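Sync notes, pocket subgroup
Present: LS, DG
LS reminded everyone that the earlier model was apo-only. Rerun requested with copper (II) ion included. Inputs:
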Amino acid sequence: MVNRRTLLTAAAALPLTGAASVWPTASSAAETSAKLGARGADPRYRLRLAETAIAPFGVTTEARLANGTWPGEPLRFTKGESFRVLVENAMAQPTTLHWHGLIVPNLQDGVPGLTQAPIVPGAALYYAFPLQQSGTYWYHSHVGLQLQQGLSGPLVIEDPDEPLSYDEDITVFLSDLLNQAPDQAMKALKSGGLPVTAETPYRLPNGEAFATDIPYDGLLLNGRPPNDPWIKAVKPGSRVRLRLINGSGSSYFRVALEGLPLLVVAADGEPVAPLEVDNLVIATGQRYDLLVTVPSGGSHRLHAAALGLDKQALGVLHASDSPAKSEPVRPTFDGRALDVSLLAAAGETTLPEGPQRRFEIVLSGDMQRYIWQMNGKSWPEADANFAGIAPDAVFHEITYGERVRLDLVNRTPMVHPMHLHGHVFRVLNEGRDPATAPLRDTVSVPPNGKVSIEFFADNPGQWFFHCHNAWHLAVGMAQAFRYMV
Ligand code: C2O
Ligand code: CU
C-alpha cells in the first residue's frame, strides 16, 4: 500500500541521487511544485505498476503492466495543462517512468541514477510539469528490460487549436512479446545469441534483409494477438486520425492499411507537410500520425509486420455498414513506401542563432560477446542502489544556447533507433531543404550508414542519448549530454 509518507516528489527524491545534485535543476523542480500548488495538486492519472501473468500466445508469461492492461492506461492531456501523474510501484523491483518525446524539466525525465532515484517497491512518485507540446507520445519504464515486459503506454496531448480535422482519433500501439524472462534471453544473447529462424522474413522496402537480435514469440496491436485482433468500427466515410506508436522492445514494423492510402501528417508528435504513401516503416520508439478515410462498405486490415521476422501484428478498421474481415493474411506491401528523406516539417525549423558544437558519435558493437557501444564505450550498469553515476560514464559537456550537431556513424550491420531526451532535433538529410528539416526525437541510423541531427541547447540538465533497442540499451548503448543555465 502506498501511504502519504511514501509519496515523494521528484524534488524530494533528488538528494538520493548523489552526483545528480550537483546540477542546478532543483530550481525547475521547485518551480514545478510551486505551479502545482497554485493549480491544485491532484493527479489526473494514477498508474499502478504491477506484475501480471498474461498468455496472448498460449504460453503464460510474466508481464509488468500499468493499471493492469497491455499497453498501459492511455494518458491524454490538453496542451497548456499540467502533466500530473502519480506512479505507484506495486512491483517487486525498483522502477521509473519516462515520458518519451516530452520536453520536461530534467528531474521529471525518469532516468534512474541520472535524473532521479528509482521508485522502490511499495513507494510512489508524483511526476508533474507544464506541458509545452501537443501530439503523439508514449511512456515506458526506463529500468532494465521492464519495457520489454509491457511497462509502457500511449501518451497523447491534444491541441486546443488543432488544425487537422477528423471524425475519429484512434491510437494504435505496437508491441513485441517474448515468452521467456528477459534476463534469461539476455544470458543467451551474451553466450552466442538466440537463433532467429524466420522462414520468409519481411524485408525493407528496398528488398534488403533486416537483422534482428530476438526471436519474438508474437506481436501485439493494442495489446491483441493477430488471431484475436483489435477491431474498430467507424461511421461510413469517416476521416480517422491514426496515432501509430512503435512501443516495441526492438522490432521495426512495416505498416499498411489494406486498400487505403495513408496521409502522413506528423512524425514523433511534430507536424510534417502532408505526404501520401501506401506503407511505411516505423522504427522502435517512433510515432506517425496518419489520416485515412474509411469508405462505406469497407473493411481494412491494419498490417504491422516485423522486419526480419515472419510475424505480424494485426488490426481491423471497418465501416459500420460492413462486417470486419480479420483473417491474418500475409501482407504484400504494394505501392508507395514512405521515404523518410522526403519528410519535411510543416514549417521552418531553423534553429535560433548560436555558437555551433559538433560531435561525431560512432555506433559500434560485437554481436558475439553482445557488446553495444557509443564512441567505444558502454554506459556503466547502475549499481544495486542506483547511487549516482559511475565515473566512466560518457558525458558530453555542452553550453546553454548552443546549436549542437551530432554526426551519427553506424559501424555495425544492424539499425540503431537513436533517441535524445528532453529536446527535439532536426534530421539533416542531404538533398533536403534545410529550412524545413523535420523534427523528431528518435531517428533510425541504417546499418553502416550515417545520419546527422542538430538540436538547440535550451533545456538545461543531464539528458540521456541512447539506442532505443531495449537489448542494446540494457548493455549500455548510451551516453548523456549535460549543461547548466
Ligand atoms: Cu523512450 Cu530513454 O527512452
Ligand atoms: Cu542499437
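DG: The pocket of CU-O-CU linkage (ligand 1) is lined by residues 98, 100, 140, 142, 285, 419, 421, 464, 466, 468 (CB under 6 Å).
LS: Helices lie at 10-13, 26-39, 182-190, 470-474.
Action: DG to write up.
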